[in-house]
Specification:
The protein has 343 residues and is an alpha+beta fold. Helix content is 33%, strand content 9%. It has helices at residues 15-31, 54-64, 87-94, 101-116, 125-138, 144-150, 174-186, 201-210, 248-258, 330-335, and strands spanning 3-7, 37-40, 46-50, 152-153, 157-158, 168-169, 172-173, 233-234, 241-242, 264-266, 276-278. The strands form five sheets. Strands 1-3-2 form a three-stranded antiparallel β-sheet, covered by helices on one side. The chain has a two-stranded antiparallel ribbon with strand order 4-5.
């Protein structure tokens, strides 16, 4: 039996929430129901169509969900070098939970590779490019979509803007924070006293999926560029300065959704240009010596009507497997951008 679940916690007007919707569908189609589809209805609500009802969806994320092994050993702050925050990466590396099997394996690969390349600090220049190429060749298949989303490796390394400059927003490393949020939800023992996200991760999940008001679901941690309104700082609250707070599930699922934008290096038939990189509906225009850059016919313009969100009639999200760059139909790349979320 198939169910149409309206996920009111996913809205298209906030980047993190938009990515969260993509992440939910990707994970369900890859790990639970290969035939799952999803769409935005006329009221801009995200609807997930799968074999999972509400209870099964919650059980999947709480008990079964295997996180994508996101690692950034090329970054300072990724958890692999002295002085880095290691709470998350150590907890996962020492865990015996089946859901973290792939994560543990990829962390071990990174540690062994850094030893083999004799890297004990953040690499720069050619050393960084060499490390990236080794990682792309040696990490498991589960980790490759993250590498391709964070870095496009060709003659040099390019960094698509969605994930900053290689999976980080300044000093804030997305993968390390991803591991910290995972550890807080699944690997930290429950504590007595005031209820927190760690005490009841299910409450935080229900808030993230269905926008239900629950106590203690917002954690005082950095969120980065995905939710500017919750990033904290001066004039961000009724007082002088606000704190950065986020529901850990919102952060996890938003990063999972960013993998739908994995890119690839490609070469165009132009002798005057070197290779470039292609990202699903996240392309930028090249520099132009005359006129203005938007006059350059690259990339091709989207078809008429592409400013609307997907509908089940026109462009339902594809089933499992189509999130792979090599299998992503080019027509879907154009159609699925649809209305880019405001940042």
């Amino acid at each position: 039996m198939r169910h149409d679940l309206v996920l009111t916690g996913c809205v298209p007007t906030v980047l993190a929430s938009y990515l969260k919707a993509l992440g939910i569908h990707r994970l369900i189609s890859e790990q639970l129901d290969p035939g799952a589809t999803a769409y935005w209805d006329a009221d801009d609500r995200f609807v997930l169509c799968s074999t999972a009802d509400r209870g099964e969806l919650l059980r999947f994320f709480n008990e079964v969900y295997a996180p994508t092994p996101m690692v950034t050993p090329w970054n300072g702050g990724g958890g692999f070098y002295p002085g880095d925050q290691k709470a998350g990466i150590d907890a996962i590396a020492q865990s015996e939970a089946p859901r973290f099997r792939s994560y543990r394996e990829n962390i071990e690969i990174c540690v062994d590779l850094l030893k083999g390349l004799q890297l004990d600090e953040k690499p720069e220049g050619d050393d960084k490019l060499r490390l990236l190429r080794h990682l792309r060749a040696r990490l498991t298949d589960e980790a490759i979509p993250w590498i391709d989303a964070a870095v496009v490796i060709g003659e040099d390394a390019r960094y698509p803007a969605l994930l900053g400059t290689g999976g980080n927003d300044g000093r804030l490393d997305f993968a390390n924070n991803f591991m910290q949020r995972l550890a807080e939800l699944f690997l930290v023992p429950q504590k007595k006293g005031r209820r927190t996200v760690e005490d009841d991760p299910s409450a935080a999940l229900q808030s993230a999926l269905f926008a239900e008001a629950r106590c203690g679901t917002q954690k005082k941690v950095a969120v980065g560029q995905f939710v500017p309104g919750s990033a904290g700082g001066t004039n961000m609250t009724s007082g002088v300065e606000g704190e950065s707070r986020v529901n850990p599930w919102d952060y996890l699922l938003a990063l999972e959704g960013s993998l739908a934008f994995a890119g690839a290096a490609l070469r165009r038939l132009d002798a005057n240009r070197s290779g470039t990189y292609h990202k699903p509906h996240l392309s930028s225009l090249p520099a132009s010596f005359v006129g203005h850059s938007s006059s350059v016919r690259f990339p091709p313009r989207l078809p008429p009507g592409s400013d609307a969100l997907w509908s089940i009639r026109d462009f339902p999200l594809p089933p499992s497997g189509l999130y792979s760059v090599s299998l992503f139909p080019s027509m879907f790349l154009m159609a699925a951008t649809v209305r880019a979320p405001s940042v």
